[in-house]
Amino acid sequence: MSEHSEPAARATLMRFAALAFVTAVFTYALIVFGGIVRITGSGMGCGNDWPLCNGRLIPPMDFETLIEYGHRLAALLVSVLVLAVTVYALRHRRSIGAGGRGIVGLAIAALVLLIVQILVGAVTVWLELPTATVVLHLIVASTILALLIIASLQARAEARPAFQAGGAQASYPRWVVTTAALGFVLILFGGLVANTGAGPLCQGFPLCNGQLFPEGGGLVHLHWTHRLLAYAMLVLVILSTAKTLREKAPPPIGRWSLAALILVVVQIVVAAALVLRHLPSDLRGLHLAVGVALWAALVVWATLALQHAASPTLHGRAA
Questions:
Q1: Does one domain contain both 292 and 172?
Q2: Number of domains in the chain
Q3: Which domain holds residue 138?
Q4: Whether residue 204 sits in one domain with residue 129
């Protein structure tokens, strides 16, 4: 970008970063709200109607209908925000220069996934909550959240490069990306456990029914696999954090590594209490909220680590 256009382009990028960040926050809240719909058994609160609710635009409200209808209104708000992110990126794609192409691509990808998410949500209601589409709904939402976070961080990096050259020699970004990938798999298995009835089938903690190799059917093994992945996540976050701090990553990256470490410890403590207290609703909601927050923290950590690894390129472009 030319010197004359640089201030305007940077302001445009920062506004986009703010809009994408706000949309990510609302997307996180919507995912947690979706968990509340499931936990309270309100998924069919609007019947199998979509986009109407019990055949009406504004239906009579009992508890389950209020929860499900509120979730649909929240989804509408997030849809408008994602559309606004994409429109803003496309409208200003020329002013932000060649470096903004990736940001536009991320915004378009979020919008495409939003359309997929809406269709999946409709099918989920029409088919009365089959496990496959419920879990797919969670996975697509988590992916949209990641895309919005990455787009926001990338726009900030284009506007104000945060890292000096020298990150290309670091090895910790590979560890962090691997950790984030495991986080995505963990969300998938968590969704399967929550929606297949596998939750109550592994009693006790940290073992499953007091066994390292538990007996039982596929759902027992599904739950146990989820736990083993959570333990692996704890180990991998510890190792990745140690690697990040040992290689003297920039302070923002170090802070996010510690945030991820704290969140994974909190999540395991919540999971232990959840199992030992026989799956109370409040802890089920908290488990989801902390799990998605951990996923978001891993995405931020991995994105910043990759930006640091590519910082010679960013630094050169800024110059």
A1: yes
A2: 2
A3: 1-160
A4: no
Residues 6 or more apart in contact with residue 33 via CB below 8 angstroms: 70, 71, 74
Nearest alpha-carbon partner for 170 in 56, 304, 66: 304
Tokens of 147: 């895309």
Which residues are CB-contacts of 262 (< 8 A; sequence separation ≥ 6)?
Answer: none
The model carries a pTM of 0.93
**Alpha helices for the chain (secondary structure H):** 6-39, 63-91, 101-126, 131-159, 172-196, 218-246, 251-276, 281-309, 311-318
Peptide bond into 51 cis (omega under 30): yes
Q: Is 53 helix (H, G, I), strand (E, B) or coil?
A: strand
Whether 249 and 198 share a structural domain: yes
pLDDT interval class at 164 (50, 70, 90)? low
Place 95 in a pLDDT band, splitting at 50, 70 and 90: confident
Domain boundary among 160, 181, 211: 160
